[in-house]
Amino acid sequence: MNRLWYMRIWCNYKARLGIIIVGSFIIIALIGPIFFEDPNAYVDTPLLEPSFSHLFGTTGQGQDVFAQTIAGARATLFIGFGSGFLVVLFGLIVGSVAGYFGKRIDNILSLLINIFLLMPGLPLMVIIAAWLPPGPFSIMGVLVFTGWAWNARVLRSQVLSLREIDYVNASIIIGESNMKVIIYQIWPQMLSLIMASFIGATVYSIGAQVGLEFLGLGDVDKVTWGNNLYWATNDLALLTGSWWTFVPTGLGIALVSFGLTLINYGIDEIANPRLLSERTLKTRLSTLYDRNGSTPVAKDLYGK
Amino acid sequence: MENKILQINNLSVDFLSDDISTNAVKDFSIYINKNEVFGLVGESGSGKSTVVKSILRILPAPGVITNGDIKFQNQDILNLDENELSSLRWSQISLVKQKALNSLNPLMRIKNQIIDTIRAHEKITTTDAIERCNYLMDLVEIDRTYLNNYPHELSGGMRQRVVIAIALALKPKLIIMDEPTTALDVVVEKEIILKILDLKSQLGFSILFITHDLNLILGFADRVGVMLKGQLVDLDSAEKIKSGGNDEYTKKLINSIPQVSNDNQAKTDNNTSVLMQIIDLQKVYNLNSSLFSSDKIHAIDGISFNIYKNEILGLVGESGSGKSTISKVLTKLIDFNGGKILFDGKNITKILNNKDLLKYRKKVQMIFQDAFASLNSIHTVYHHLSRPILIHQSYSNYSKVERDVIIKKQIIAILEEVDLTPAESFLYKFPHEMSGGERQRVSLARALLVRPDLLIADEPTSMLDMSIRMDILDLLKNLQIKKGISILYITHDIASACYLSNRLIVLKNGKINESGDTSEIITNPKDDYTKLLMNSCQSDWIKNRS
User: Fold this and answer.
1) Which terminus of chain B has fewer Cβ atoms in its 10 Å neighbourhood, N or C?
2) In Å, how far is A253's CA from the nearest CA of chain B?
3) Contact, B186 vs B155, CB < 8 A?
């Protein structure tokens, strides 16, 4: 990737759509809650259908669903992106050290990674979350603790292959310190993988965190998307047919994950130009081009 | 048309993209006669592989054929549909690619790969198929027992023979060989080519031989085409091309073939002192090391030699001879298992702390084979060249602005020294904006900025295009004289080593086969293996052998 990688991501329509979706959710999460004093406040009769006074209706506790959805976005996205970031950072450091130094250090760290990979993630997550005092940082800790190993393994293998490339050797030979070689020579080359890992880890974190909170393992007094769903079931939303108590939150989760996945696809196309060129041929040659067929012949391409 | 098996007229191929389309091949016309070896020569990026893939219509996206026709035995390949194409491929035209290991399925036995190929086109009973396998193995002179082996159990040369056997399986009329021997050692390469020619006279097929190595193709092709930037610039009989061809570019290529000759030897100074002493060096690699057993490979098996001050020492050997391991050991990228290395009289295994290591790094520098891989694609030339200055020189007395001015001055000076002019225009270029030769000069500049006593050059020209190899060799030679440094020139090509170095060491299987003054070895090689290497790089090697 060259220096204009961010421009190339923006020029890719899948990535751009993803960035717009995720970006608008982030903006809503940042500035939205300013307009609502307390999303937990009792505002009206419980289980009111959506109306102009309460855009998304009210919950079983008589709270405004619109306010809760927006306030929930802030907490959920913060924990999602935060633990996504920490998972990748931790994985990157462990993976880089293991892949770069090799030999005994690699053996020990790989053993550690494998142990964490072998541990059953979901039950462990539930147990630790139940044991720790409930709260956003506990959930973040649980997600990082159970999630870092996979990224460490993927990033380690990339470091391992980049380690053998001549520019890394050249840097070592001119006397660069190991840390500088990793940070300036190896990491920039892995940027697309790091970005993809970060986005993947974020999608995973959002899902896992919502799942934990839905089970009641979060701090149920806080307003998050997971807790919104927890309270919706608690107030028998399905039995009472009050769909508006869980659909907005569910849509929010789905849209953010969708947006993030689109960004990932976009990065994939940029990092793997072949996907892009197949699409180009498809649009410019239409029926002449078949992905599994022979090289197309287009003698009148330039309108001769 | 009677005698022509393949005729390409005005072929144009474009690579489409959303904004700009690149013209990879333009108005390309050749024909190939029956029973002929046609050589197509060009540097990397000249479009020769694009032509090959267009003939078989296997050029991947975004390639599109935009003009011309390709007639194979009176049918136009460009008008065929998918079914006709797949029955044509392999049964009429087959392809041998550069890397045999990539052409073979690592999970299938050789036998099954051959049978698969046959069965894709013919209905054949198992006994008949095995019969055919045996016949093919006999043709390429591999023992039939290897049919039950997997590709990784065969040597590089044998794998390429298997690929050729598969290419012959359906008795095609034309075999396209796309750099079939580039990944092989010089000696094996010549054996494979003799085998191909032998098979051609037995079975009667035409060969389109693609290569970047003009010296090689001139030895056995009937006619040769020269490609440059997607166009055919020269086309004539091999004899005519050998005597200079019809184009300036051909002449340039011909002149850049290094010859084993005695003319350009700098004389060795007798009273020079030793810079580096390598005593009984051993390096063992552990393969498949498990708890109970481990296979060991002696990459370097007891090697002793000296590098003197102010000389160019050539280290010649095939792949697997241990020459790259030596470069890694000498630059302290890897440890060694036995023996001693003394640099300026000091034992380099005693370097333990970072400060001493940095001192050693200042003395010994290296340039690499792959000019593209030795520069990081995300950093500019300025970044690459400022690092050695910042690491090895102290600027604590200067402000940041003053420091940057001094660094820039040094970088410009060194760029001019390696003939990259105007130097200012290269400062902020990225590696992908430069040609292979320019990139190699930047890596050379980076190594020289450290002001080393010893420069290790590990195949610095083998990945470069033919026409610029000589320039880099000359540059190394001039710099050595100007700066008074020692150069350890590592190569598989004995001709270029003869051109450059004062003394030669010939390595084989981790041991020194022969060493001495270059002129002595050229005039009187004692070892058979050295003779074989020297013979292999002559353009008339075929005559010398038979």
Assistant:
1) C
2) 34
3) no
Of B357, B301, B343, nearest in space to B326 by CA: B301
- A185 and A291, same domain (yes or no): no
Which residue in A251, A204, A201 sits closest to A225, CA to CA? A251
φ and ψ of B137, to 5 deg: -65, -35
Which residues of chain A have a CB within 8 Å of the CB of B387?
171, 174, 176
Q: Which residue of A has its CA nearest to B62?
A: A277
How many residues comprise chain B?
Answer: 546
Do B442 and B395 contact (CB within 8 A), yes or no? no
Same domain, A283 and A181: no
Torsion angle of the four alpha carbons A149, A151, A157, A163, in this order, in degrees rounded to the nearest 10: -110
Q: Alpha-carbon distance B223 to B228, whole Å?
A: 17
For B471-504, the pLDDT digits (tens) are 888 888 888 888 888 999 998 888 888 888 888 8
CATH classification code of B310-334+351-545: 3.40.50.300
A residues 280-299 lying closer than 8 A (beta carbon) to B: 280-281, 284-285, 289-291, 293-299
- How far, in Å, CA of B458 to CA of B451, rounded? 18
pLDDT, tens only, B36-92:
999 998 887 788 888 998 999 988 878 888 888 899 888 888 888 888 888 888 889
Which residues from A are below 8 Å from B369, CB to CB? 166
Contact B87, B121 (CB under 8 A): yes
Would you state the structure tokens that stand for residue B314, as one six-digit string? 């050539």
Task: Say whether the peptide bond before residue B452 is cis (omega within 30 degrees of 0).
Answer: no
Are A265 and A278 in a shared domain? no
ipTM of the complex: 0.76
Range(s) of the domain holding residue A301: 272-304
Interface check for A103 against chain B (CB to CB < 8 A): the answer is no
Q: Is A76 in the same domain as A154?
A: yes
As given in the structure block, the two tokens for residue B166 are: 């598969």
CA A268 distance to own-chain centroid: 15
For chain A, how many structural domains are there in total? 2
Distance CA B29, CA B160 (A): 29
Q: How far is B155 from chain A (nearest CA, A)?
A: 24
Same domain, A243 and A287: no
Neighboring chain B residues of A286 at a CB cutoff of 8 Å? none
Whether chain B has a CB inside 8 Å of the CB on A301: the answer is yes
Domain ranges of chain B: 4-92+174-255, 104-171, 310-334+351-545
Per-residue CA distances from A269 to A177, A189, A257 (Å):
34, 16, 18
Of A35-49, A69-83, B234-248, B265-279, the range with the lowest mean pLDDT is B265-279
User: Cβ separation of A301 and B14 shorter than 8 Å?
Assistant: yes
Q: In this structure, are A166 and A245 located in the same domain?
A: yes
Tell me if the pTM is above 0.95: no
Q: Rounded to an integer, what distance in angstroms lies between the CA atom of residue A12 and that of residue A5? A: 11
CB contact under 8 A, B65 and A294: no
Nearest C-alpha neighbor of B114 from the set B164, B156, B157: B164
CATH dotted code for B4-92+174-255: 3.40.50.300
Same domain assignment for residues A176 and A189: yes
